[in-house]
Design brief:
The protein has about 400 residues and is α/β, with parallel strands linked by helices. Helix content is about 35%, strand content about 20%. The chain has 15 helices and 15 strands. Strand 7, helix 5 and strand 8 form a beta-alpha-beta unit. Helix 4 crosses helix 5, helix 6 runs parallel beside helix 7 and helix 8 packs parallel to helix 9.
Length: about 400
């Protein structure tokens, strides 16, 4: 076999579906050709290999490149003052209703140019990449007007040009109601739907998201958005059941959503519906921690029904200013009691599934993009166990 690069002397966590645990290979080898994995498995499971470069990993671990499947990297300003208010006892809902929250970020985002949005987001993206992340999802949703939403999506696409990373973009127009809407949520949703054909034609977004909550939009309003998105061939996903149970998980499943995210208040009917529809449960412990939630997502129900579980940073200025997927895993284990295997799968295979990209990334398998994270660790549990420590040895994106 002729390849471009070979990594040998490695222990692999392949994350291949159907394998036991993490799909561990103790004496493993990964070969890349044309930016894709040509072989990943036991070193003695492949014949002679010729390569332009052979890298001895000296017993290090290789996992798939990490996938952050829920971020809001594009925004203007910050909300440190709201953090202070929250410490003084104000709730997320109280801050939002007083004109803070998403609307305060909207003003700063609208005032920024696309280049300024890119410049402010790059340090956040770089923090993720420094921990082995090779695929990132970025949502709009802080512009809340035609021009600002398109600007935000353009900035998100530009991040994928500025850095070696696979970028997935999501249109989140139904995130909050801007002040100029005058309280008319239905009319605003009409505008969100009206922008969908342009977004579909331009290719600026890979999916459509919405926020189903009392302080945001109703299930009926979101159903209108999702119906229009699906008619245009755009996949959907949903911020669901974070602060109350409006049966968002069930709604997401009814539309065959890629994922439903947050899910602290999801009931058994919602968990079962998600499993049946193949909708991934994306848990966001950073937001749970930051706004001091007490209602845990129903992990046992997800396990019971076989709902796939992913983890993500939810990096955003108001409720999860988090740019570490490693810390996210620790939070998932500590706060939500996920296992080590669930956490690692949650930021690789299941996160890729939540983006509809499992055919390209998320596991170490021949034919997939050669996105690798090489770690200075003795066992995979260290990736979940440590806090504030980055054991990344090398990050490989598309074989480079």
């Amino acid at each position: 076999m002729r390849c471009d690069r070979v990594w040998r002397g490695a222990r692999l966590a392949t994350l291949v579906e159907g394998a036991d645990g993490l799909g561990i290979v103790e004496d493993g080898l990964v070969a890349a050709k044309g930016g894709r994995i040509a072989y990943a498995g036991p070193a003695d499971g492949v014949g002679a290999i010729e390569a332009d470069e052979i890298v001895d990993c000296e017993g290090r671990w290789i996992t798939p490149g990490l996938v952050d499947c829920h971020t809001h990297l594009i925004f203007g300003g910050n909300r440190a003052h709201e953090f202070e208010l929250r410490l003084a006892g104000a709730s997320y809902e109280e801050i939002a209703r007083a004109g803070g929250g998403i609307v305060s970020t909207m003003k700063a985002t609208r005032a920024a140019s696309e280049a300024e949005l890119v410049a402010s987001a790059l340090p956040r993206l770089d923090a993720l990449l420094s921990e082995g992340v090779t695929t990132v999802e970025v949502k709009s949703g802080y512009g809340l007007s035609r021009e600002a939403e398109l600007n935000s999506l353009g900035a998100a696409r530009a991040l994928g040009v500025a850095r070696p990373v696979s970028m997935t973009t999501t249109y989140l127009g139904a995130h909050a109601l801007p002040p100029e809407a005058g309280g008319d949520k239905d009319a605003y949703i009409d505008g969100v739907i009206g922008l969908l054909p342009e977004i579909a034609r331009s290719g600026l977004a890979d999916a459509v998201d919405a926020f189903c909550e009392g302080i945001a939009f109703s299930p009926e309003q979101i159903a209108r958005v999702f119906t229009a998105a699906k008619a245009l061939g755009l996949p959907v996903k949903l911020h669901a059941d974070q602060l109350s149970n409006l049966h968002g998980a069930k709604l997401a499943a009814e539309f065959g959503a890629l994922s439903a995210d947050h899910l602290e208040h999801t009931d058994e009917e919602g968990a079962a519906a998600m499993a049946k529809a193949g909708t991934v449960a994306v848990l966001l412990p950073g937001a749970f921690y930051f706004i001091r939630e007490t209602k845990l997502p129903p992990v046992e129900l997800f396990r019971k029904h076989g709902t796939k579980i992913a983890l993500a940073t939810d990096c955003n200025p108001g409720t999860s200013p988090l740019t570490s997927l490693l810390l996210t895993m620790n939070m998932g284990a500590t706060l939500f009691r996920l296992t080590v295997d669930e956490c690692i799968a949650g930021v690789t295979r299941e996160a890729a599934r939540a983006l509809g990209r499992l055919d390209e990334v998320g596991t170490l398998e021949a034919g997939k993009s050669c996105d690798l994270a090489i770690w200075n660790i003795e066992r995979p549990a260290e990736l979940v166990y440590r806090m504030g420590f980055n054991p990344l040895h090398a990050r490989i994106w598309r074989g480079q």
